[in-house]
Design goal:
single chain, alpha/beta, Rossmann fold, four-stranded parallel β-sheet, 11 helices, elongated, binds 6-O-phosphono-beta-D-fructofuranose
Length: 341
């Protein structure tokens, strides 16, 4: 059997660890051969391939990014895209696909499975907002990077009696902000799931200053004020209909300065959260997802995705995992509120 592998959407630490595990087990235990597809769904769409065998995956475990490249190509937004994918897979002798991605990449995998393509999914996203799995790989690395940034910002904020705002990724879900904010001892955490009141944010900041501490505010890029919209860098949409978010940190700094008279500055962590080597936990999770994904191919469990439930890896239907996003439960967010202000 020949298996195609692709990585789609925003890259994240651990993608290479999945590829390595899939190929190592697939070749040694099942005798399969592999073909890498470049740049997400653009690979099968345009027959862009890369050889994938055991020598090609050597040394990949600690390497960030993806050796296959990634893109946000949506074959369902391209005329005749799906037929082209089916034809290319046939011409290349590819019997099954392992698609490693988040909501968009696996959303495409779900639809392709429904029209007869043999596909197994692996969940990745630093945002951790994919349903069906307790965690996605990449998230732990992003949280640790953000936590380290918050730790560093505490001392400089206090030295200068400033409010410092840390804008982290998280388009729809505040998982990174919540986990990194709690781990880093943030004084205010703002997430997309719970609209914030700017007056309350300023009150919390002022109470922090009164205690002779400088407030650290962690905000997800997708957070919204109670009477406003998300802050956009550009209204232009990608192939999946997503706009480019950005600017909420600067908005908060402007409002805090104007309303409290204290200096406020913003640090936008951006793609630093997605780059570089994965943490031990992400290497472990990515490797286990890869091992179970190739087992699922062997068992012909098409249309399924590897998922973490507790400490077990189980297979769940892609359709279930991509139906809706996994958002932060307001009750979980409320736990963090005891530290606000
Ligand atoms: O989906 C993961 C993610 O990191 C989001 O948190 C963020 O909004 C988006 O990707 C940024 O994507 P890009 O690098 O394509 O601008």
């Amino acid at each position: 059997m020949r298996i195609g592998v692709l990585t789609g959407g925003g890259d994240c630490p651990g993608l290479n660890a999945v590829i390595r595990a899939v190929v190592r087990k697939g070749v040694t235990e099942y005798g399969y051969s592999f073909l890498g597809f470049r740049d997400g769904w653009r690979g099968p769409l345009e027959a862009l391939t890369k050889p994938l065998d055991i020598p090609a995956v050597r040394g990949l475990l600690p390497r960030g990014g993806t050796i296959l490249g990634s893109s946000r190509t949506n074959p369902f937004a391209v005329e005749g895209g799906v037929e082209r994918i089916k034809k290319n897979l046939q011409d290349l002798g590819v019997d099954a696909l392992i698609a490693i991605g988040g909501e968009d990449t696996l959303g495409v995998a779900t639809k392709l499975h429904e029209i007869g393509v043999n596909v197994v999914g692996v969940p990745k996203t630093i945002d951790n907002d994919l349903s069906g799995t307790d965690y996605t790989f990449g998230f732990d690395t992003a949280v640790n990077i953000a936590m380290e940034a918050i730790d560093r910002l505490h001392t400089t904020a206090e030295s200068h009696h400033r409010a410092l705002i840390v804008e982290v990724m998280g388009r729809h879900a505040g998982w990174i902000a919540l986990h990194a904010g709690m781990a880093g001892g943030a004084n205010i955490i703002l997430i997309p799931e719970v609209r914030f009141d700017i007056e309350q944010v300023c009150k919390w900041a002022e109470s922090r200053f009164r205690l002779d501490y400088a407030p650290i505010i962690v905000v997800s890029e997708g957070a919204k004020p109670k009477d406003g919209d998300e802050s956009l860098l550009s209204g232009e949409k990608d192939a999946f209909g997503h706009v480019r978010l950005g600017g909420i940190g600067d908005y908060l700094a402007r409002e805090i300065e104007a309303r409290t008279g204290k200096e406020a500055r913003t640090t936008v962590l951006g793609h630093v959260q997605r780059g570089g080597t994965p943490t031990a936990r992400d290497r472990w999770l990515a490797t286990r997802f890869g091992l179970h994904a190739i087992d699922a191919v062997h068992a012909q469990q098409w249309g399924q995705m590897a998922a973490l439930r507790g400490t077990d890896i189980v297979m769940v239907p892609l359709a279930e995992a991509t139906k809706e996003l996994k958002l932060v439960d307001p009750a979980l967010y409320a736990e963090a509120e005891v530290f606000f202000g």
